[in-house]
Amino acid sequence: MTRPTAYPTVRRSRKLFLFVLIAGLPAWLWAQKFHASQSAYLSQKLNKTDGAQAVWDKKRKALTYPGLEKKEKKPGKKSGAPKPSSFNPDLKRFSSFLRVLFGIAAVAFILYLVYRWMDARRTTPSVMNVELSDEHLDWIEENLPEADVRTPLDMALESGAYRKAIRLYYLLIIKHLDEAGQVHWQPDKTNRTYLNETAGADYHSLFRRVTRIFEDIWYGERPVSVDYFHTVQPLFQRLDAAITPLIPADDE
């Protein structure tokens, strides 16, 4: 049996790329339009009329500034000579472009965070459904030595899937018995065989009791209530705690 795919990262990356591309396209088009309008505005020339200039000169001469003395004009300099302008239209356009570019980057980053948050909320239940599916539990049972039992067990406990949690607890115990050299795991062996292989162990009576609970619930298709699970869970935990110290350090 092939293992179900739980994390479709390639398809998720493609979705993320398309989301950022579609979300950023309107902002990029708006930036181009804004930049064109700014360039058109800055390139316009002011139209001066002689009448307007004469009115301004007349009013400017009538203005007085208390506390400030009028500076005498130095000979040799023309009062009407234009001063060099410090305004650079290219620099102004570049500064506007940078502000727009920074705004687009900020919006794209916020959209990316929102997408990741929504994607995490959407995919987490599907991942849990795959990890706790009957097909995946069957795959674990058939490939027990290399299978990860702890992760789906934690998911089952968190989601309240107590019947599957009991099955995973029992698979974890068989896995640890194999790692400790107490039994020799084979996919076609029965639970009765494992009980016979551990007949002389100190934990044998507890192992027999846990096996009876597991077979009654799983093969008998009995529902498991919260209260009942909390009653039998310590038995599985106590048995696992008795087996774990027997596992060699290299296998832990």
Blueprint of the fold:
Layout: H1 9-43, H2 50-62, H3 89-131, H4 134-142, H5 150-159, H6 162-179, H7 191-197, H8 204-218, H9 226-243
What does this protein look like?
The protein has 252 residues and is mostly helical. Helix content is 67%, strand content 0%. It folds into two domains: 8-41 and 89-129; 134-251, no CATH class. It has nine helices and no strands. The chain is rod-shaped and about 115 Å long. The chain starts with 8 loop residues before the first helix and ends in a 9-residue tail after the last helix.
Write a short abstract of this structure.
With 252 residues, the protein is mainly alpha-helical. It contains 9 helices and no strands. The chain has helices at 9-43, 50-62, 89-131, 134-142, 150-159, 162-179, 191-197, 204-218, 226-243.
Summary tags:
mainly alpha; disordered N terminus; 9 helices; 2 domains
Task: Domain count, please report it.
Answer: 2
Please compute the radius of gyration using only Cα atoms.
Answer: 39 Å
Q: What does the average pLDDT come to? A: 78
Total DSSP E strands: 0
- Name the beta content range: under 5%
* Main sheet summary: none
- Basic shape: rod-shaped
> What is the element string, with H for helices and E for strands?
HHHHHHHHH
The unreliable regions are 1-11
* SSE-based structural type: mainly alpha
